[in-house]
Amino acid sequence: MNYQWYPGHMTKSVRAMQDQLKLIDLVIEILDARIPFSSRNPDIDRLGNGKFRLVILNKADLADPAVTALWKAYFEGKGIKAVECNAKAPGLAKSLKPVIAEVCKDKIERDKKRGILNRPIRAMICGIPNVGKSTFINTFIGKAAAKTGNKPGVTRSNQWIRTGANVELLDTPGILWPRFEDQTVGMHLAFIGSMNDQILITEELASDLIRFLRKDAPGKLEAYYHIAGAPEGAEHLEDSVLRQIAASRGFLKKGEEPDTEKASAQTLEDFRAGRFGRISVERPE
What we know:
Structural class: alpha/beta
Distance between the termini: 26 Å
Largest sheet: 6 strands, mixed
CATH superfamily of the largest domain: P-loop containing nucleotide triphosphate hydrolases
Strand content: 5-15%
Helix content: 40-55%
Radius of gyration: 21 Å
Order of helices and strands: HEHEHEHHEHEEHHHHH
CATH class of the largest domain: Alpha Beta
CATH topology of the largest domain: Rossmann fold
CATH architecture of the largest domain: 3-Layer(aba) Sandwich
């Protein structure tokens, strides 16, 4: 299966973001803590050139904490402040306000020298689809100001939002890039739901996920579904696992045949929700 998704509205979204850059002090890039490499849009490096930068490793509650610590060190080694968070948890503004002030201290000092006090820091919130940008904004300001949804492509236009914390946030649509040179990147994005599931072959994606889990998180899948799994080298290994998952969940077609398509969709949903435990898909080099 070819992992690729770049709907037409994303080109328009990038242009709209470029138009706002002259107003921006800080670029806050929201990444998925499970796949920080694959969830980094290379276009955002270009857009954020010359701006203060902050990386938010969102959904850290779903990722391996030891691996997330390695990612924080990785980004900070590149001169980019990185903070892990769960965008649904309260207290986000309280914890992040001093971090934003630290990252933008040069801008704040310049304003003071010019006699400008308490001018809001204008921050662009950006990232790939379904990474939690709107949830982050809503939790930060303590109310539902940005539209959210458990699927990619909910936000379609830029929206300025006042926070009451001396910070103004620009909510932007999730953007991918036109072509994934490495199909592993596309596969990892599909794992976490940052691509439109309707263009994907669910059973193939679930099979790729099963192969990853058996290698990098052995036993997690079997323990959650209470199945035996399949021995290494078994023929049609992934199909065997999906058939066991279908049987364990009662997903049966006529004639008591396991419904592997339903089992595939359930496996993806359970992984995305963190039901197999805290699993990081990628580690820093």
